[in-house]
Amino acid sequence: MGNNIHAHVPYGRLAEHLKYAIANRINPEVFFPAEALDSLVMAELAPLAAAIHDAGLVTTIHAPFLDLNPGAVDPTIRAASRRRIMQVMEAAELLKPLVIVVHPGYDDLHYGDNRPVWLRNSIEFWQEFVPPARQLGTVLAVENIFEKEPSTLKALLEAIDDPCFRHCFDVGHWNMFTTVTLDHWFSELGGYVVESHIHDNHGQCDEHLPVGEGAINFEQFFPMLTNYAPEAVWTIEAHNTEHLQRALKNIQTYIS
Q1: Distance from CA of residue 124 to its chain's centroid?
Q2: CATH number of 2-255: 3.20.20.150, 1.10.3720.10, 2.60.40.1820, 3.40.50.300?
Q3: Which distant-in-sequence residues (6+ apart) come within 8 Å of 169 by Cβ?
């Protein structure tokens, strides 16, 4: 695992968890919800970013996602989504993340026959942000959420076709919504994976359990992730420190 292990932390709690992260050599994936971005003071973020970098840690960022949709049919929703990503890019100037995780905003139930419109809008949206991502030295990684199979994300990734726009594979979301096997997903998108969100569930809701405490077959997952994406960031999406510690311990049983 080395320096590839990250852990999810909301920006509002970054300061209180920073000492623990540095002591345990855990790289933070900083989540910026909308309210954090609207109250963000760069002079307050700067010393936190400096402490992370001075400790030899690296960061990733999770962009806001609730109510946002880069491919929305409604241009007002796209405009709001654009504003949020622009705010994230400003924070990235200080945090210097390896990856910025973004949500696609697509699901079959809502879009149906409007899939081509959503895809066209998404391509146009993300093409705007690829050059600034390249300038920052980061990668935008679109995460699977409600996707039952990988074709829509694959179409988006192929259309943009840039090393600064890649895929974050969330194994928990896959387990909840998939209609295809892990083998199938990785055969289609494995080459695009630059980060993976790692947590467990029983397939019914997004429980964010520690690895090995739900129904996901991690004996299959970890070798596949390592094979297709050996340089990918591994992000533990735990919702408290106890779950994070259990996840880190449990992972060892699968990779030793």
Answers
A1: 21
A2: 3.20.20.150
A3: 143, 144, 185, 186, 189, 193, 195, 196, 197, 225, 229
What pLDDT sits at residue 168?
Answer: 98
Q: Tell me the two tokens of residue 255.
A: 């990779």
Place of tokens 């995460």: 143
141 backbone dihedrals φ, ψ, rounded to 5°: -125, 115
What pLDDT is attached to residue 2?
Answer: 42
**Closest of 118, 126, 123 to residue 147, by C-alpha:** 118
For the chain, the domains span: 2-255
Decide: 148 and 108 in contact? Cβ < 8 Å: yes
Distance CA 248, CA 55 (A): 20
* CB 140 within 8 Å of CB 102: yes
Q: What pLDDT was estimated at residue 255?
A: 85
pTM of the model: 0.97
Using a 10 angstrom Cβ sphere, with 0-12 exposed, 13-18 middle and 19 or more buried, the burial of residue 45 is: buried
**Residues recorded for the chain:** 256
Q: What's the average pLDDT block by block, 10 residues per block, for the chain (256 residues)?
A: 78 96 96 97 98 98 97 97 98 98 95 94 98 98 98 98 98 98 98 98 96 97 97 95 95 88
pLDDT, residue 1, reads 41
